[in-house]
Design brief:
Blueprint: E1 2-6, H1 15-21, E2 30-37, H2 48-68, E3 73-79, H3 82-92, E4 97-101, H4 112-122, E5 128-131, E6 133-136, E7 139-142, E8 152-155, H5 162-170, E9 179-184, H6 190-201, E10 210-215, H7 219-229, E11 234-237, E12 240-242, E13 247-249, H8 252-260, E14 265-267
Parallel strand pairs: 1-2, 1-4, 2-3, 4-5, 8-9, 8-11, 9-10, 11-14
Antiparallel strand pairs: 5-14, 6-7, 12-13
Helix pairs in contact: 3-4, 7-8
Amino acid sequence: MRVLVATDLSAAGMLSIEALIGCNPELFDGVTLLHVIEADHYMAGGSITEVIEWAEKQLAEEANGLADAGFMTDWRVEQGPAADIVQGIGTEIAADLIVVTDRGKGGAAGRLLGSTAERIAQAGEIPVLVERVEERDTSWCRLGEGSPFTRPLVAADLDDTLRRLAVTAGRLPGRESIRVVHVASPGSDLSQAHAFIEAETAPTPIEDSEIVVTEGRDPAEQIMAEAQASDATVIVLAPRRHGVIGRLVFGSVAIALLRESRIPLLFA
């Protein structure tokens, strides 16, 4: 797996790099660290040249740390609209995964939550892992520990996104088990939903997965409960697709999980 880590170089944003340290480097084809300079974020002072030099120094230090841990690592500093640049670089290097955090500059909720992270997920077809971080006392830390890929939970809808989610989850490096969860509306035919999931996942790398079909009025809450009960390390889900060109937008379940989940989210 080749990974692109996009960071704004804040204390919170740098924790996306820490997530990889808990993984086996032999399972990765390479890691590229990327910082995108959006001019309006640096209007408080300092020239773009100075910012580039500072960013290059920071990324070089982080790249050296990953190299010491056994990862093949390079880094880049680019200028332009963050979401477009991130997806563009991801396509250029044939990345299998983009990693960001849900907090950024100043740690303010919403810096990435509901804005940049969403735009990155919507800008292309590369799966995006959103790491969860929080401030404790005076420092930032990841909410998860170790590899986020060990025990994925697939939040399944009964549509054409399920097979793509299954393939993505099945290819995660170092995975041990997979749980597929569908929350049906009250009164639905649960056996029919189970059969659909079995059929859609059979041709994918997760044919040995555990399938859970339940019903309820709050899918996001039940998905989080299932994730906690199974000690899931990541929730794999799809942004909702609308329109004839398949444009990605975030549905209510995805938004609720972005706001409330305590474990990473993988949008695929």
